[in-house]
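Give me structure tokens for this 167-residue protein.
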Amino acid sequence: MSFPAPSTNQEWMILGLGCGFALAVIEIIRLRIVLHRQKQRMVIPVIELEPSLADTELYLSNNSACYAKAITPEDIQVTLDYGFKKTFRVRFSPIEKLAPQEKVPLTYTIFDGEFRIEADNLNPLKAQLAVASFTLRLSYTNMENIRYRSVIVKNKDKASIQELKTS
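Here you go.
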């Protein structure tokens, strides 16, 4: 079934109004999606890992518009290369709260098996850890006590959020 082409001004006007209406509906849908994302951004804390090669530190930053609290990183196993590969366990200290756009250094303890590595020997390991590849799992809540779990993958000097979900 084919439709004849519009021939009068009135038909052209109706066609133009129909196209304008369709474009307006598409724009309304797009704006509703943007509004929904903005509302989520106001409620969901987005915590990112920021490695710093300059001072060989690992930082957690809250890149959202809401507070995060009770941030608990899980222990990780990381293999460092000193000409030979050695696996260490890193235990991170929990963070009480993190304000929007705030950045704090992660405090951690490194273990070789069951033995804690003392502060004197920690600096070379911190430098290796800043460039090591590993996966960090975090659990935290927002101010409304909604629990979130985040998986952050760190490769060399870059880290990215692989997963963020409610738990």
